[in-house]
# Entry
Amino acid sequence: MAILVAAFELVGEVGYAGLTVEGIANRAGCGKQTIYRWWPSKAHVLLEALAVKADLYVTNADHGSYTDDVRAFLGDTFRLSRQQRVVDILRFLMAEAQINEEFGELFRSAFLQRRRDALQVVLDRARTRGDLPPRPAASTILDIVFGTLWYRLLATRQPTGDDLVEDLTATLTQAAQPRADIAIDMGDQQ
Amino acid sequence: MAILVAAFELVGEVGYAGLTVEGIANRAGCGKQTIYRWWPSKAHVLLEALAVKADLYVTNADHGSYTDDVRAFLGDTFRLSRQQRVVDILRFLMAEAQINEEFGELFRSAFLQRRRDALQVVLDRARTRGDLPPRPAASTILDIVFGTLWYRLLATRQPTGDDLVEDLTATLTQAAQPRADIAIDMGDQQ
Amino acid sequence: MAILVAAFELVGEVGYAGLTVEGIANRAGCGKQTIYRWWPSKAHVLLEALAVKADLYVTNADHGSYTDDVRAFLGDTFRLSRQQRVVDILRFLMAEAQINEEFGELFRSAFLQRRRDALQVVLDRARTRGDLPPRPAASTILDIVFGTLWYRLLATRQPTGDDLVEDLTATLTQAAQPRADIAIDMGDQQ
Amino acid sequence: MAILVAAFELVGEVGYAGLTVEGIANRAGCGKQTIYRWWPSKAHVLLEALAVKADLYVTNADHGSYTDDVRAFLGDTFRLSRQQRVVDILRFLMAEAQINEEFGELFRSAFLQRRRDALQVVLDRARTRGDLPPRPAASTILDIVFGTLWYRLLATRQPTGDDLVEDLTATLTQAAQPRADIAIDMGDQQ
DNA sequence: AGCTAAACGAGACGGTACGTCCTGTCTTCGT
DNA sequence: ACGAAGACAGGACGTACCGTCTCGTTTAGCT
# Structure
């Protein structure tokens, strides 16, 4: 859809504050009414544009162990956050979600919750498999993983590199492996 | 300052989207120019109003051990986040920081970084004392703590209760208990 | 157009200094942008409102002689200037024309010059007919007629009565009738 | 006074619309309050600046005959109107007089009426001397002279040259030459 | 092939807030 | 004590978008 492409491109050029429905319509060569007919706000357009333009797919395939599952999930997730345009849009949508309550609910249920659900599958599998550490609680793990990711996007703007993946994976899985080899692994990891 | 009080009250009544410089001026009984003379945007007003109205003090006093220090810091921090008005303003400021690059830089340096610095003091003391676990890395700890907090504020809107404090404390400090030799290796890694 | 009516009425109530685009918009029940879309300033609105609301028609029909033509033209013109609302607007527009160069050019070409042209027709006809006095020059006649009118509007604020019409008519036409009956006419005239 | 000089210079640089009390204060190196202490508005400042900066003197000395007196008066007056800065300020003041009723009264009584009075002296002398034409009436003569002058300043913006002086002088005095008996009747008429 | 009707581009509209400018008053501070 | 400096409440400016609302004009799909 030309409108989604226009929104996706424009937000990269003028930022979220500079993005207007009028601007999207002009770029897309359509009337404003056509946009309002299908989306209630520019944030909704952007949310759909993100889904169309960006491959947001993150696997939660079984890698045999909880540790490997988590490492793979984090790697996939954090890899996505290296596409600057995508990251910017995610930041803008999270911002809008704070300001516009109606959009916030949509964003949480249609986007954020889906991410949590994907990781939840990994945790459920680990519990079934029996290698889920007793601590932290599953909901805390979800908060830590996505919290750390979002915090880097929103607050520190640091790149989310492989070292963080390893560090997080180790932190979340160490209690399951209270053995001496931890210290040995450490050298390589950093 | 009447302007800060007005902004603080108004944002609670009409939300951030409904907050206008004109509205603040009317409530404060001043002209718009007086606001623009001192702050470049409503977000800047709110940031200062937060500092004036809300007691954002979080201690990082020495409680004798890394575990107790972390528990106390998290308890203080999360307690703050039970003041709904304060939480809302924090959410709005974080949102604005995504949209307005200039404000974003101020918010990160004048607010977010100060919070990190406070926790960093606790970590530094633990390293000196010798009870800092080898993992995760100090910067990762900061990301996890504040990431989890902000994620709950922005994304899940769950209350930040004592159980989460305990769970996080345990996760961040558990590696220190099992075996003392891990700590010995840590010096290189950080 | 509701905007023109609103402007015409408002200027009578609050004067030109008190007239604002915002006020016109409120009275007309429209947005400010709608006014700015069609007129560059409140003066332009008023100029058009004048044309719509006031019947500015002045005849220059042939009355058989230069003297009668001039008397008729002056009578028509001065009669107009007894509508106070119209006079006020004319004064305000002439004032604005001094202050705003761009409006000044419009006012001169679209209003003042048209008045001159109408009288010029009378003079041309007299020249063809052969009863135009040799003096004063045509352009001086125009200056005298409109100068006197405008001076009364702007400076003395005296009513422009029939006596002035007669006096001016006589002054401008006397050279064509260098006869004794002038003295006889004088008595009636004052 | 530095304020008057500043106002006189500034109005030539930025026009009347661009002239502000603040600007005058800055240029004059004084505070705004000092200006408001002595003059109620920028127009009042300008009116006084005009009197100080421009030599507005017009003679009404006795040249022996009504015709010569009128010619001299017109010549003096019109000569003044070749100083562009002075003309501009006169135009602006006349404009302000239309818009600001309070200033209008001052301008009429303190400036316009004084000009009329000066010419009235010439007319009174002519009546005494006996060479005042019966027509037009004295007040009409005043209207014609100043009306024509102001009309050229405000409306046509034509230069006021010597030819106009001659044309006007002739028009206003011609009736006096043809026949002396006209003057005899005049006494009643005025 | 012609007809109907939905969706479209275009853009004017009533409205809100913006950030700037200037007003005329009031306060501070240095000489 | 005076006056420059400038903060202040107030209010209009002209602009930018908002979301709504006609307008004709395509563009189908259905007769």
